[in-house]
């Protein structure tokens, strides 16, 4: 390794160590006002916190407990930088993962740290081989890789929400028809929900079971169903909840409303398939125009060009 690169690496390690030592000075880690008032304002738990089971976020729970304070500090810093805690909580509810905002921020920190370590390993390998003469470029690349890991975890959450809502939309017509059959057979709204949740499986059935549990806990059926609409961003499911609410409050035939909702969702699914088919048809023109057609022209013109060359 060239002397200037080794000196830069040693200086980087020394500065990181000095920064860690300075940030851990007790005078700089004085508790805030919120930390001092929190033990007197929060509701004390019924059991000891030592007996509370904490879910491990990594395959190494012992190492996770050791670096837990560092992870919490990094999580707070990430929350201050990114913000948007309410929007993230809404998306976690939509994903149905049962993960808190703090756990999600820890996952983001872990993803960013993993990407940063991978980039550092690749950078050290390049420096050892002498392929790069400017370590500043590698340092910027490592920082961008860490930020990319954090953003990638956020994108993964958005993809989970989209997949879950797509499954719920596919399950919706069948669940609505099951509810309509149960209501037409003489069941009440709560009885129809119980029968449907017992005989079906899936994301939408889980949401209906959660709404049924809320109704049993003391909330009205309309409020419990509106909780489903608030935990998803599907317009069809919001219309479904509104239709049931109007039918329960005004006494209109619930079975007809549910059948109409199922028909509307099936028609929307057909329109979505037609639109997707149209987009795929346009995409299929790309290999035809840029690959198949040029090859066909070459096969058509090549014999004539060869014949002209022989004639000349």
UniProtKB/TrEMBL annotation:
It is found in: Cell membrane. It is a multi-pass membrane protein. The chain crosses the membrane at residues 109-128, 135-152, 288-310. It comes from the Bacteria. Its main location: membrane. The keyword Transmembrane helix applies. The keyword Plastid does not apply. GO terms for cellular component: plasma membrane. InterPro entries: T2SS_GspF_dom. Keywords: Cell membrane, Membrane, Transmembrane, Transmembrane helix. Residues 177-301 form the Type II secretion system protein GspF domain. This is Pilus assembly protein TadB.
């Amino acid at each position: 390794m060239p002397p200037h690169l080794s000196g830069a690496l040693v200086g980087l390690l020394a500065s990181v160590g000095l920064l860690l030592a300075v940030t851990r000075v007790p005078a700089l880690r004085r508790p805030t006002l919120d930390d001092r008032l929190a033990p007197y304002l929060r509701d004390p738990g019924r059991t000891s916190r030592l007996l509370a089971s904490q879910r491990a976020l990594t395959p190494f729970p012992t190492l996770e407990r050791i670096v837990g304070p560092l992870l919490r500090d990094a999580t707070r810093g990430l929350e201050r930088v990114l913000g948007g805690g309410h929007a993230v909580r809404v998306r976690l509810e939509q994903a149905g993962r049962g993960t808190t905002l703090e756990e999600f921020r820890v996952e983001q920190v872990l993803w960013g740290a993993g990407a940063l370590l991978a980039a550092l390993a690749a950078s050290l390998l390049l420096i050892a081989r002498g392929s790069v003469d400017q370590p500043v470029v590698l340092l910027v690349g490592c920082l961008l890789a860490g930020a990319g890991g954090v953003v990638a975890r956020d994108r993964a959450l958005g993809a989970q929400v989209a997949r879950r809502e797509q499954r719920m939309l596919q399950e919706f017509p069948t669940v609505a028809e099951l509810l309509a059959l149960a209501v037409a057979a003489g069941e009440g709204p709560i009885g129809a929900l119980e029968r449907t949740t017992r005989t079906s499986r899936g994301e939408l059935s889980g949401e209906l079971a959660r709404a049924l549990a809320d109704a049993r806990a003391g909330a009205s059926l309309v409020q419990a169903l509106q909780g489903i609409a608030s935990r998803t961003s599907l317009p069809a499911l919001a219309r479904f909840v509104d239709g049931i609410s109007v039918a329960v409050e005004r006494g209109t035939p619930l079975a007809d409303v549910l059948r109409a909702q199922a028909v509307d969702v099936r028609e929307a699914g057909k329109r979505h398939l037609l639109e997707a088919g149209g987009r795929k048809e346009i995409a299929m023109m790309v290999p035809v125009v840029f690959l198949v057609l040029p090859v066909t022209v070459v096969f058509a013109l090549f014999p004539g060009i060869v014949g002209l060359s022989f004639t000349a």
